[in-house]
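Researcher: Structure for this, please.
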Amino acid sequence: MAVETTTAKTAMTATAAARGSAFLRVSIGLQTLTLFFQAVSAGLLLSTSYGETLHAVGARVTYGATMLYVLAAVLAWKPGGGSPRPILYSTGFLVLSSVQVVLGIAHVPALHVPLGVAMFGLTVLDLGRVLATTASSRA
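Model: Predicted structure, token format:
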């Protein structure tokens, strides 16, 4: 009876880890896509009348994607048994996103634009790390 219970718990933990890992990959991918969209809409902001609206909507979606990444990191760690390191990365992105919102509202492009570029670079690196970790754990 105890062996069956242990086997069932191990199977449930493996399933939770797989789901948490998939959710983490999707959430960091979504964050990367939304940050890329923000770069595109920033260019449109300079050249079209609707660019400001796209950039404002994109900012809200990007912030939501960043919060989703924090949630995915916590869920991949706690019930999934993964590393707590993605929580640190996702929380850092949430802080940077908050700073971006403040700089954007205050119309400080001298800091807003370079921080946006840095955030896109960091999210691409983080996406690569998550995908590489997942690929190596499957092999």
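Researcher: Any notable elements?
Model: The mean pLDDT is 87. Helices lie at 2-47, 51-77, 85-105, 109-138.
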